[in-house]
Amino acid sequence: MTTPQLSNDPGQQALYTLIQRSIANAGGWLGFDRFMALALYAPGMGYYANSLRKFGLTPESGSDFATAPEMSKHFGRTLAHQVAEALQVTGTDEVWEFGAGSGALALQLLDSLGQMGVSVKRYTIVDLSGSLRERQQEMLKAHAHKVQWVDALPEQLSGVVVGNEVLDAMPVQLLVRKSGVWHERGVVWNADAASQDKATAEGRAVSPLQWEDRVTDLRPPMEVPGEHDYLTEIHSQAEAFVATLADRFKAGEAATGKGGAAFLIDYGFPESEYFHAQRSMGTLMCHQLHKADSDPLADVGRKDITAHVNFTGVALAAQDAGLNVLGYTSQAHFLINCGLLPPLVDAPMDEKSMAQKLITEHEMGELFKVVAFGTTEWEPMGFAQGDRTYAL
After folding, report:
1. Which end of the chain is more exposed for a tag (fewer CB within 10 A), N or C?
2. Does pTM top 0.90 for this prediction?
C-alpha cells in the first residue's frame, strides 16, 4: 500500500498514512467519527496533538481561532465566582478542567480564586495534547504546586469540573437523508493516480479522501419533518463522556462522601432547534487561520473540526446516568448572573469592548450556552435569571 505524497510536512504525511491504513483495516470505509478522532487526536499527528499553534486573537499569530479566555480575562474572573460557590456547596477543594487549551482559563480561575480567598488544593487538567501541555505549564508556572496533568479520568473524582469548548471537538457521526432514505456518511480512500500525478507536476496536493454514504438504521434522536435531503450529526461520544463523568462523580461520592458539579460551556442548541427541518446542512465546521470552511477532508491535521452541541442529548445522558441537571442558559445570562458587569464599570475601553463580545447576541452571548450537572440538587448563581432548562 503506497501513500501518495500529499504534504511536505512529515507529520501530516504520517497522518494521511495512518488514515489510509485505518480505512483499509475497516474494509474500505471509515465512519466519520473514527476519521474525526484520527484527524484531531492521533498521537503526535492529529490537530490537537501536533505542535501547530491553535489559540490566538489574530491569524498573524499563526493561530486558528480564539476562545473566550483569550478574548477577555473577565471570562475566567467571572466564572471563578460560580466555581467558588460550587466548591462550597460540594464541600470540595479540587477543580478539574477538560481541554485547557492555552491555559488561559486555568490561570484566570486560579488567580481569581486565590484573590477571593478560596482554597484550591489541586487543579487537574485533563488534556491529550503534549504540545498544549507544554504551553499550559509555561502559562501556569506560578501555580505549579497546585496544577497536575492527566490524560484520562481517574476511577473516582470529587470537586468542580469546567469545560470550555470541549464538547464541540468530540467526534460525531454524520447522518444524511437522501431521497427519504437515511445513510451514515463515512470516508473512503480513492487515490486517482492521474490526478495525483497532475497535482504533483503542478506543485499542489490533492487529497484522496472522499465521502461515501451507506444506508443505516441509525436515526437522529427526533424525527426531522419532511422528505428533503438533510445532513446532521449525532453525538454518541459527547453523551458517553457525560455519562462517564457521572459514574466517576458517583464513585467519588461513595468513597469520600463528597460529590461534584460540572459546568460545560459551548456553542449549540436544544434538540428542537438542532434538528429543525431548515437546518438541512448540519453544523460541521472547520477553522484555520481564523477562517471557517466546511471541508474536513482537506488539509487534515492542520485545522480544527467541530460540530455544534445537542444540549438536550447531553442533558439526558447526564440525567440517565444519575446526575441532576442544575441549569441551562445562554452564556450572556450566565456571565451576567455571575457578576461580569460591575468590574467593567471602571475598566479601560479595550477591556470593555472585548468583554462585551462575551455577552452580545451577535457575538458569543446567545450562540454559546452553559449547562451544569451535579450529584446533589441546588441552584447555581449562573442560572438565577434566564434559566432555560425547560427548553431542553
Report:
1. N
2. yes
The reported pLDDT for the residue numbered 195 is: 57
**Residues lower than pLDDT 70 in the chain:** 1-7, 56-57, 129-130, 191-206
